[in-house]
Amino acid sequence: MELENIKASLTTALTEYFEQVTLPENGLFVLGFSSSTVMGEWMGQATNAEVGDAVIQTILPILNAHHVNLAVQGCQHINRALLLEREVADRRGYEIVSVVPALHAGGAGQVAAYKAFKDPVEVERITADGGMDIGDTQIGMHVRWVQIPVQTSVKEIGAAHTTFLTSRPKLIGGERAIYEWPEK
């Protein structure tokens, strides 16, 4: 798999995502990612550190430009724990757990993010504002309700299917409820 094609697809996908979605400043974007699936293999069977590095190094500057923080979902072997910056975990009140990602227990994305982050930590649960799933890793459990699918022209990164989510507050109250603040 050509790393430049992966980077170009990611850049296009995230550019289109942020043309449609505005996440809050200091919001949280979750990445679920299988380098094996990107390579056309079954999840966990062909973990590739170079693909992990390419994905993380492409995503981080784009998220930083939008003032959004990254959380990277780990694989099932670490119970889908999430890697993020300690400052983000502390600010959001997330409980930190003890595990260091490895290629076959966390995955290539977590290992790459661990190297790229200033002070990485793992947490068990987050409530992200949106996210991207590369390879059907099931990020929905980490995105707040109400989840809204976002469509981009990029349907695959390498051989891996992509899905994008954003979220909005729940609409409650029924037919008498008003959902927009009145003009002052």
Automatic annotation (TrEMBL):
Which domain of life does the UniProt lineage start with? Bacteria
Among Gene3D superfamilies, the record links this protein to: Hypothetical protein TT1679
* Signal peptide from the UniProt entry: none
Which protein family is named in the record?
Answer: Belongs to the UPF0340 family.
In terms of HAMAP family, this protein maps to:
UPF0340 (MF_00800)
Name the record gives this protein: UPF0340 protein FD14_GL000706
Per the UniProt record, the source organism is Secundilactobacillus similis DSM 23365 = JCM 2765
